[in-house]
TrEMBL record:
Signal peptide: none annotated. Pfam families: Bac_globin. This is Group 1 truncated hemoglobin. The keyword Iron applies. CDD domains: TrHb1_N (cd00454). It comes from Roseovarius rhodophyticola. The keyword DNA repair does not apply.
Length: 123
């Protein structure tokens, strides 16, 4: 039986370190950092640790409905989502996550693009 990415890379202990590093970088980034100006970071980091764990096959789970509700009205644009994916890939690389595994995790983010990007009002 093949290990999940969550188990392969050390479980919550490693994912927690990855997410802490990720938010250090996101907060410093001009494109995505402003989204976190008025956010309870400790709560967000806890949620994000569970979310990334779920993307890696860990025990936590998130529905797309939950993700959509949490991001509704944030007016996230494609270039900001692309920058987020770049930073995620950089952080995973720094934690020695293998290339194909990075592609899997970043692909899981990409699979949710359509529920995170603000859609133009066509009315």
């Amino acid at each position: 039986m093949e290990k999940s990415l969550f188990d392969k890379y050390g479980g919550f202990s490693t994912v927690s370190k990855i997410v802490l590093t990720l938010y250090d970088r996101l907060l410093e980034d001009d494109d995505v950092g402003p989204f976190f100006d008025d956010v309870d970071l400790s709560r967000l980091i806890d949620h994000q640790t569970k979310f990334v764990s779920s993307l890696m096959g860990g025990p936590a789970s998130f529905s797309d409905d939950h993700i959509e509700r949490a991001h509704r009205g944030m007016q996230i644009e494609d270039h900001q989502f692309d920058r987020l994916k770049e930073i995620v890939a950089e952080v995973l690389t720094d934690f020695d996550v293998e290339g194909p595994d990075i592609a899997t995790i970043v692909g899981a983010f990409e699979a949710r693009r359509n529920i995170l990007i603000e859609k133009p009002d066509v009315n």
